[in-house]
Design brief:
This protein is mainly α. The protein contains two helices and no strands. It has one domain (4-64).
Length: 65
């Protein structure tokens, strides 16, 4: 049970990376979403949010180590 917080933090880093990858892929190629003008703004917001979650996860991981 002692490793559970580290696993949760690492999991949130992975999910933030996957969201960022999906947003970048959508902006460049229009996959997995439609790639329209309205989704472009959502992709930018997804990138900002995944950067925030990634930073907070990294900071929490630093405190756990």
């Amino acid at each position: 049970m002692k490793d559970l917080p580290k696993k949760v933090v690492i999991g949130s880093m992975v999910v933030a990376g996957l969201v960022a990858l999906a947003a970048i892929t959508d902006m460049v190629m229009g996959i997995p979403f439609s790639g329209s003008e309205h989704t472009f703004m959502m992709d930018i917001l997804f990138l900002i949010c995944s950067a925030i979650v990634g930073y907070l996860s990294w900071d929490a991981f630093k405190d756990l180590a």
